[in-house]
Inverse folding.
């Protein structure tokens, strides 16, 4: 039985799909896979990819930062500060951003915001690699 | 052309070009209100879900009192104030209303012998408070037109850090509440400590049986600052929508005033033109009359 996946961020609310079979997320305590009918959970996520496998074995991966995953029966809600959906990944821009951020961090080791943005950008780059495989 | 007529026509042209500017600003503000309003609405689901998750968790986690962000201090020695103003003027009473609210909080704190920590968003607030010699703890400029979540995050984190470090014991935000395009109100609301009633389940409701990973207290620890940031973000978004609404109203009034002035000036110009024509005709008639009289004299 498929379930719905929704993404909710401070800027938007997006319904990603309603035919997810499996969802693999990176929790702060380890990876977790969720299928339909899973017991209600609330999981804190770390920066990283969130993969869903849809009907017909279509895989889609997004990048989530500062988020929670909430599952209650038929709906999985990704509640996060930043979510980059698969179709939104711009690999050229991301690579440029990584170079720029690394340069800035090298100049100032205390740049907290840059570090968190770098982690996000790296996760996007990694996801891009997976998507092409 | 007479001096008076020329002068009036010059003023008419001046008013006309001012009117073009105010009309353009009015139209821009109108389109911005809609977008700003959409952002306010778009931010709500996230804020509501964070709040809901907090409520459900707070119901389970008994050790609520261990979280400093939820803890009301016995004694308030320092009040933190975040005031959200705009970067640009020409928005009628928008900035002065919200500044008044912030000033009232500071004065009240001073009356009670408390200190204050003033944080400002927007250039207008900075120049106002700096000019009057207030101590400014921090300020951000260039974000109030279209605030992004990152902006709210930076401001919110600063407030949280300050509160956690004991530099402030209560934090309020003075912002402009956007009720509709026609009605906005400057007001203040408490950010820290988090108002307990807002994150408690209504009595009698049973929280859903979630499994938590990591344990509830750790998730609560992550959720609480986010909740604070969503409050700041909502305040910034509402203020931005209010700013555009206030500017639209101010520019509409300015355009109407210009139109009225234009009507008056046109009348003055017409009067001047007519009197000029009358004088010219009088000259001609006078001249003709003189000629006629001369001719009559000659024929006699």
């Amino acid at each position: 039985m498929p379930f719905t996946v929704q993404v909710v961020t401070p800027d938007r609310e997006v319904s990603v799909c309603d035919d997810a079979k499996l969802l693999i997320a990176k929790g702060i305590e380890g990876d977790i896979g969720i299928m339909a009918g899973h017991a209600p959970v609330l999981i804190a996520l770390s920066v990283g990819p969130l993969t869903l496998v849809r009907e017909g074995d279509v895989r889609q991966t997004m990048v989530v930062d500062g988020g929670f995953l909430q599952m209650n029966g038929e709906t999985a809600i990704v509640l996060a500060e930043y979510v980059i959906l698969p179709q939104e990944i711009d690999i050229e821009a991301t690579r440029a951003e990584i170079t720029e951020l690394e340069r800035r961090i090298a100049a100032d080791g205390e740049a907290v915001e840059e570090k968190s943005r770098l982690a996000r950008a790296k996760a996007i780059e990694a996801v891009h690699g997976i998507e092409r495989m | 052309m007479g001096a008076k007529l020329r002068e009036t026509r010059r003023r008419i042209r001046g008013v006309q070009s001012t009117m073009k500017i105010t009309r353009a600003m009015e139209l821009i503000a109108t389109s911005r209100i809609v977008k700003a309003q959409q952002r306010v609405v778009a931010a709500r689901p996230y804020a509501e879900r964070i709040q809901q998750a907090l409520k459900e968790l707070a119901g389970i986690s008994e050790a609520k009192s261990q979280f400093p962000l939820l803890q009301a201090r016995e004694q308030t020695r320092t009040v933190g104030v975040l005031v959200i103003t705009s970067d640009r003027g020409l928005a009628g009473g928008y900035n002065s209303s919200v500044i008044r609210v912030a000033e009232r909080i500071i004065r009240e704190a001073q009356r009670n012998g408390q200190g204050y920590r003033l944080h400002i968003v927007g250039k207008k607030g900075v120049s106002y408070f700096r000019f009057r010699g207030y101590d400014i703890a921090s300020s951000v400029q260039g974000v109030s037109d279209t605030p992004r979540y990152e902006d709210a995050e930076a401001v919110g984190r600063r407030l949280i850090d300050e509160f956690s470090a004991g530099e402030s014991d209560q934090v309020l935000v003075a912002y402009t509440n956007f009720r509709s395009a026609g009605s906005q109100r400057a007001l203040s609301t408490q950010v820290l400590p988090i108002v307990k009633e807002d994150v408690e389940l209504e009595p009698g409701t049973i929280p859903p049986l979630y499994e938590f990973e990591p344990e509830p207290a750790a998730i609560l620890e992550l959720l609480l600052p986010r909740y604070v940031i969503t409050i700041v973000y909502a305040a910034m978004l509402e203020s931005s929508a209010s700013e555009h609404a206030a500017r639209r109203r101010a520019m509409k009034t300015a355009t109407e005033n210009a139109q009225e002035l234009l009507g008056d000036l046109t009348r003055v110009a017409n009067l001047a033109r007519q009197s000029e024509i009358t004088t010219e005709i009088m000259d001609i008639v006078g001249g003709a009359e003189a000629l006629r009289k001369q001719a009559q004299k000659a024929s006699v």
In short: Chain B has a mean pLDDT of 89.
